[in-house]
Specification:
Elements: H1 10-22, E1 32-37, E2 41-62, E3 67-72, E4 79-80, E5 85-89, H2 92-125, H3 133-165, E6 168-170, E7 175-177, E8 187-188, E9 201-218, H4 219-228, E10 243-247, E11 258-263, E12 273-280, E13 292-309, E14 314-316, E15 319-325, E16 331-335, E17 337-342, E18 345-350, E19 357-361, E20 373-376, H5 385-400, H6 403-411
Parallel strand pairs: 1-20
Antiparallel strand pairs: 1-19, 2-9, 2-13, 3-5, 3-8, 4-7, 5-6, 7-9, 9-12, 10-11, 10-13, 11-12, 13-18, 14-15, 15-16, 17-18
Helix pairs in contact: 2-3
């Protein structure tokens, strides 16, 4: 005889279900993120450029008369003063020309004296009828012609003297005299075919203390600068008030700071840029014309901005944003605007308020509307192994925090 299966009471089934429910994993704790509180501040409004150096004064020394170059009277690459003799051109022809013109002047002066005496005598004889009016008129005309000839001769003599002086080529300005372009014995001229009608170039003199630094800024960057400076615009016309720091081609900083010296009032139609120029002292002649240098130009201060660590700024199709943590420990999105950086931080100009708590690390586990646990973010010092390890550990902890409760539940 078969036995009937035993029935389990309903009360026992309920106890089994309750026991199973009591073993479910508890809800995971909120993820941990590192945050920093921001405050509005004022930061330097700086821009970086590449510029090219040029001499403060530069003058080409050319031959102003034709002849054979006799000698060079200066040391190449040495300092010369204004008016110092640099070259000498053969003066023989110009001295002879001057002597000839002086002789013609002396002859015409003698003729003038004779015509003057004749004219005065005839004017005295006219009232007594000893000479006719025609004679007086002729003598007066001869006197005036002789006087005009003397004036012309004096101008010719002056020109001859100037030409003779030009055989001694002197420095038009003080500065560093460069290498000679023509050697002694060569024929130089004031209008030769090879120079296109200009005098033969003999050398160049440059003043290199102080020096100019020429650079450009795009019109778009200039507009951004004017918008960035709260409470005013960047006034490039205030020459001598905008500071300029220079770095040499090898990256070494140049000890003497310069100032903005000139800004153009037009935009170059082909490049869309505005020409700027700085003035910097060069007492040790470390700066040379034609050299390229890096410039950091201080355009003033940028007020009421926020410095946000670069890793905290996120971007999507709508623009830049950061994740903030409110008083209720919930994550919220803040759209921000930024156009520049300073060191390892972005300069945020719009979208934040004083005291906002921004998530720096752990943004990958933070979601809008979700709760998070916050710890203070510490900026890792450059080159510090301990700081780098601490930052890595904090990031690893933030990434692993959501998975930790699940592991605990599985263990149970």
């Amino acid at each position: 005889m078969m036995s009937r299966p035993e029935r389990v009471p309903l009360s026992c089934l309920c106890l089994f279900v309750l026991a199973a429910c009591s073993k479910q994993a508890p809800p995971p704790p909120p993820p941990q993120v590192a945050t920093v509180k921001v405050q509005s501040q004022s930061v330097p409004l700086e821009r970086h450029f590449v510029g090219r150096l040029s001499a403060y004064y530069s003058a080409n020394v050319t031959a102003r008369v034709s002849g054979v170059l006799l000698r060079r009277a200066y040391t190449e690459g040495a300092q010369v003063r204004a008016g110092q003799l640099l070259f000498e051109i053969d003066p023989t022809f110009y001295r002879a020309q001057l002597d000839n013109d002086l002789a013609l002047l002396a002859e015409d002066r003698a003729t003038y004296i004779n015509d003057h005496i004749t004219a005065e005598r005839n004017r005295k004889l006219l009232p007594v009828g000893s000479v006719s009016q025609q004679t007086v008129d002729n003598s007066d005309a001869a006197e005036r012609s002789a006087a005009a000839k003397v004036k012309a001769d004096e101008a010719t003599v002056q020109s001859a003297r100037i030409a003779l002086d030009y055989t001694r080529v002197t420095a038009p300005i003080g500065g560093i005299a460069g290498q000679q372009q023509v050697t002694a014995g060569a024929v130089v001229g004031s209008s030769t075919m090879d120079t296109g009608g200009n005098g033969t170039l003999l050398t160049t003199i440059q003043q290199i203390d102080p020096m100019y630094v020429n650079f450009t800024i795009s019109s778009a960057d200039l507009a951004t600068l004017q918008q960035s400076q709260t409470g005013g615009t960047v006034d490039l016309s205030q020459q001598g008030q905008v500071s300029v720091r220079i770095a040499l081609p090898n990256g070494a900083p140049y000890g003497n700071a310069g100032v903005l010296d000139f800004s153009d009032v037009t935009v170059n139609a082909s490049t869309g840029a505005v020409n700027l120029r700085a003035l910097v002292s060069n007492p040790q002649r470390r700066l040379l014309p034609g050299m390229f240098v890096s410039l950091t130009v201080d355009f003033g201060r940028q007020n009421n901005v926020f410095l946000v660590p670069q890793q905290a700024l996120l971007r999507d199709t709508t623009g830049g944003y950061v994740l903030t943590v409110g008083a209720d420990s919930k994550v919220a999105r803040r759209d921000v605007e930024t156009t520049d950086s300073r060191g390892a931080d972005w300069i945020v100009t719009k979208g934040l308020n004083d005291g906002d708590e921004i998530i720096v690390t752990g943004v990958q586990v933070a979601h809008e509307g979700a709760s998070v646990k916050t710890v203070a973010w510490q900026s890792p010092a450059a080159g510090s192994p301990a700081s780098s390890a601490a930052a890595t550990a904090a990031a690893s902890s933030a990434s692993a925090s959501p998975a930790a409760p699940a592991s605990a539940g599985a263990a149970k």
